[in-house]
Specification:
Layout: H1 3-14, H2 20-28, H3 40-48, E1 58-62, H4 67-80, E2 85-88, E3 100-102, E4 105-106, H5 109-127, H6 136-152, E5 156-160, E6 177-180, H7 188-191, H8 195-202, E7 212-214, H9 219-232, E8 236-238, E9 244-251, E10 254-260, E11 265-271, H10 276-296, H11 302-310, E12 319-323, E13 326-330, H12 335-347, E14 354-359, H13 366-373, E15 379-382, H14 393-407, E16 412-415, H15 419-429, E17 435-440, H16 442-452
InterPro entries: Folylpolyglutamate_synth, Folylpolyglutamate_synth_CS, Mur-like_cat_sf, Mur_ligase_C, Mur_ligase_C_dom_sf, Mur_ligase_cen
Family: Belongs to the folylpolyglutamate synthase family.
Keywords: ATP-binding, Ligase, Magnesium, Metal-binding, Nucleotide-binding
Length: about 450
């Protein structure tokens, strides 16, 4: 590169971003740096910003499935109880600003622009070192910390891990409590080949002396959580040991349950999210709040708890977005997610036939996921999400055919790579009394949801 071109490039890098779209493009432009587990770049970035994360009180949430719903329950109840709450989650379903929320409202575009300009020189300085450029998720995490520590000053930050736990960049924080929903087969290309390896990564958010709450059920996972808690002298509250829940009544858009914990029992509690797994997620949130009552003198009245749980919404997860035709969205992109979808369809919904539309990314456990989907599907339309890591519809269909042959499934298989055309075909299949289900990667769910709900400013991403 000539000296003139180098100078021009340096000047371009130094120039401040002038619009929200430029800021979002700059952050998303870091996606090619990939997912690089490790905290070195994040630690350096925080040091350069005078460690703003140390001023905040975090509820750190990890797990394979249920993180987002658990975060939504916690956020809703805390807001209903009069607390100011920051929430950082991923991926986003509608718009990039969704992932940074204060009291349930997205970060203003102008604020995101200002914080991006605050970060940009530091990111470029670090990119010039041997550490390499901070990633998109690292920069997003830093924006969240700056938003909460320098702009909004919440009482609590509900803080969802991106991937794993131990080496996830959100693990830069020292939380008031750690929460682990469950451990399943996802991101095995990064986290490890076995449940034990994945569990060890998730358990990495457990910090010395900080209480931890979990709904993990597998004996091998529980053993690892207990080992890590013992090492860090952290009190562990486990579903089935220290706390329990029992379902009372189930109907569409309403479930009630009773909660029994070490400090008290609460009966009944009601949620509007569907599926048996959502009762487990709600019980996990309740136990988390109960521990914070003991350790942090958190004030939550029972009516505020019930109001918060009942009003919790979580887009893209067992969300009925259309009644005519009847279409349900659920981002089940791994075996455990597919199992919970299948269980919810059996326990909650009534229908004559189920027509499923599905698209996946290439790095997922397709075979085990499909083993839960095929038994519930009368028709299966395989398509492709609009995302760079998509699995081709033809490749996905070949796996469907293999499993169908093995299991004797007689599913009506339709291959349509264009997700818009696939959605049109799904609508045509849904007769009176039938149910349409769109599932798979959240990148597909995001696009379908925007189309069905006529959301014009939809973005999507991790």
């Amino acid at each position: 590169m000539s000296e003139q071109r180098k100078d021009a490039a340096a000047a371009d890098n130094a120039a401040p971003l002038s619009t929200y779209q430029e800021a979002a493009d700059w952050i998303n432009g870091l996606i090619p740096f990939g997912v690089r587990p490790g905290l070195e770049r994040m630690q350096l970035l925080m040091e350069r910003l005078d460690n703003p994360e140390r001023r905040l009180r975090f509820i750190h949430v990890a797990g394979t499935n249920g993180k987002g719903s658990t975060c939504a329950y916690l956020t809703s109840v805390l807001i209903k109880s009069g607390y100011d709450v920051g929430t950082f989650t991923s991926p986003y379903i509608t718009k990039f600003t969704n992932r940074f929320q204060y009291n349930g409202q997205d970060i203003p575009e102008q604020t995101l622009l200002e914080l991006s300009n605050m970060l940009k020189p530091h990111v470029e300085d670090i990119a010039a070192t041997e550490l390499g450029s901070p990633t998109m998720f690292e920069v997003s995490t830093a924006i969240a910390i700056l938003y909460f520590a320098k702009v909004t000053f919440p009482d609590y930050v509900v803080w969802e891990t991106g991937l794993g736990g131990r080496m996830d960049v959100t693990n830069i924080v020292s939380p008031a409590i750690s929460v682990i929903t469950n451990v399943g087969h996802d991101h095995m290309d990064i986290l490890g080949d076995t449940i034990e390896q994945i569990a060890w990564e998730k358990a990495g958010i457990i910090k010395p002396g900080v209480p931890v709450v979990s709904t993990a059920t597998q004996p091998e996972v529980i053993a690892i959580l207990k080992e890590k808690a013992a090492q860090t002298k952290s009190t562990l509250y486990l579903l089935g040991e220290q706390f329990h829940y029992e379902s009372i009544e189930v109907q569409e858009d309403q479930q009630s349950f009773r909660f029994r914990g070490p400090f008290r029992s609460i009966d009944p509690l009601t949620i509007s999210l569907n599926g048996p797994h959502q009762v487990a997620n709600a019980a996990l949130a309740v136990m988390t709040l109960e521990v914070l009552r003991q350790y942090n003198a958190l004030l939550v009245e029972d009516d505020q708890l019930n109001d918060g749980l009942r009003s919790t919404a979580w887009p893209g997860r067992l969300e009925m977005v259309s009644q005519d035709p009847r279409i349900l969205l659920d981002g089940a992109h791994n075996p455990e997610g597919a199992a919970t979808l299948a269980a919810a369809l059996k326990s909650t919904y009534s229908y004559k036939r189920a027509h499923v539309m599905m698209g996946m990314l290439e790095n997922k456990n397709h075979t085990e996921t499909l083993k839960h989907i095929l038994p519930i599907a009368d028709s299966l339309i395989v398509t492709e999400p609009d995302f760079r890591k998509k699995m081709s519809a033809e490749s996905f269909a070949s796996i469907v055919q293999e499993i169908a042959a093995e299991t004797g499934s007689s599913v009506n298989l339709i291959v349509e790579p264009d997700w818009r055309a696939a959605l049109d075909k799904l609508k045509q299949l849904i007769a009176e009394g039938d149910l349409g289900v769109v599932t798979g990667t959240l990148y597909l769910i995001s696009d379908v949801r925007a189309r069905l709900l006529h959301i014009t400013d939809s973005e999507k991403g991790w």
